[in-house]
Specification:
The chain has helices at 14-24, 35-42, 46-59, 76-84, 87-103, 145-152, 156-165, 179-192, 237-262; strands spanning 32-34, 62-64, 68-71, 106-113, 116-123, 138-140, 195-198, 205-213, 219-228. By secondary structure, the chain is of the alpha+beta class. The strands form 2 sheets. Strands 6-5-4-9-8-7 form a 6-stranded antiparallel sheet. The chain has a 3-stranded antiparallel sheet with strand order 1-3-2. It is globular and about 55 Å long. Residues 1-5 have low confidence and may be disordered. This is IclR family transcriptional regulator. One of its GO terms (molecular function) is DNA binding. InterPro entries: GAF-like_dom_sf, HTH_MetabolicPath_Reg, PcaR_PcaU, Tscrpt_reg_IclR_C, Tscrpt_reg_IclR_N, WH-like_DNA-bd_sf, WH_DNA-bd_sf.
Length: 263
Amino acid sequence: MTQSAPPATEQFVQSLARGLAVIRAFDANHPAMTLSEVAKRTDLNRAAARRFLLTLVELGYMRTDGRMFELTPLVLQLGYSFLSGQSLPRIAQPLLEDLSASMHESVSMAVLDGSDIVYVARIHTKRIMSIGISVGTRFPASVTSMGRVLLAGLGEDELNAFLGRVELTALTERTLTDPAALHAEIVRVREQGWAMVDQELELGLRSVAVPVYDPQGRVVAALNVSMQASLHSTDDITETIVTMVTGLQEVAEKIREVQRAMS
């Protein structure tokens, strides 16, 4: 995962950008790495990567046993200011808890960040993915139900720009990798008001999502229910999806009503 830097300007601090790239290089698939691995994932030379890693160790954001590096809980402070200033997750959390309890499935809220979705709230009943999901987890928007709902909320020019720059990688044999097919699916999601992704992110995982609107009618987040595909037969899947979509839409409307009352 090479992280390219944006074009430099007079106000651009390249060393800060590189330091943040080192932090972002660590994720669920790479919780601990060697110096060489960090250098490769950030496109830095070994000397530069070493300086950034050791600086982060000195600041307490990283720890090392002399060979492997990993993040410390202190990095959570970097995201706390953002999350603490966001009303949506605070509004949604109790509503998601109730919805999860009634459906006996995991429910989540995410927002769009570039080409990814970022989880901002999560209630899980059981682990159904090989990768654990928590607040801050990122996935490609193109292969997730919440991502497609959020992409459907973009204007046509923004959507075309997204499809023009994103790399559509097959994560399973079901993943849509043709830009025209993905565009058609997002248009369909926009028209019907919800999305379902069936085993495109991971085999065995099916999810349904709906948009969350702000009082002005803009899509600002997405809600989803995720489930094991094997638990629902083709006979009852339609009824199950309708129930889930209805439940999600009711929660989304409650969130909008609270936002309206707060504005």
